[in-house]
Amino acid sequence: MAQIAYPQDPQPAPHTGNGPFLVIANKGSGTNARDGEALTRALEVLSDEDARLRHWAPGEDLRALIAEEIRRGARTVVAAGGDGTVMAVADALHGQDAALAALPLGTFNYFTRGLGLPEDPEAAARALLEARPREIRVATVNGRVFLNNASLGIYPAILKEREDVYRRFGRRRLMAHWSVVRTFWRFQNPMRLTLTEKDGTTRSLRTPLLFVARSSYQLERFHLAGQSAIHRDRLAVLLGRGNSRAALFRLCWRLITRRMEEGRDYELIEAEAIRVETASSRPLLAFDGEKRRTRPPLDFAMDEVPLQVLLPSPEEAQQ
After folding, report:
1. Which of 103, 169, 241, 276 is 20 to 30 A from residue 35's alpha carbon, by CA?
2. So where does this one cross the membrane (predicted)?
3. Beta bridge partners of 275
4. DSSP assigned state of 58
């Protein structure tokens, strides 16, 4: 099920191709042989309309790199990697005169799955040749674009612990569950937050989790409410419930096993924009697979500047 609705074109313009393509791959990820071979095959497909590969590492000026390639004629910027790479490319491309596309080479690839693109990079590349650019609105946190979700509290803590456990013991399901147990013992108290909505409504609360979603596909996969907010171009803001140690453990377990229920485990609100103030001076923020310490307040908002994204036709999109 695609996360973006397709506009209805009564008289669609003839398709003239999406190239030249600029393909951006992260130097620090996707370096295994299988991903390398998949990228090579995808580039061969895109070369029918001219494709140029550039490697990029976090810390380098990605926006300047993209601007340079657009001046050289690139019409579509393709993020080759997982959600973190796609998010970085989307943020750097936002406001520039080219469309965003993606080749799934990461672990989860929620964004490409939500678009309905095939999970095989070579098949996804073929779909991009016939895809059409559409304007979508993106979410930002303190001006930084995110495409799937941004969160504070127990979920970023689980992600961080899981990375540490995987690094030491390998990527196994048992280790993913063990990371939840370790997080539970270390995560002592709910956060103290103050939320201010666009109309000035303010509320203070204690919660172990703030989860701001923009991906209908991801909400569906985690069996969470809020898809209607996404379709109305708003933020779906989930506030976890649980003040006791027992309630916190249940929330952790239901979150990782995808059995959270609205009302019982979390409250859902819709917002065009929301400011979050935290008692912590440097809370851990996770967004689209990335994690960083940041200073409050955190301003989550739907951006007014649209982003062009290549979408497969409804007939070709995965359902």
Report:
1. 169
2. none
3. 196, 299
4. B
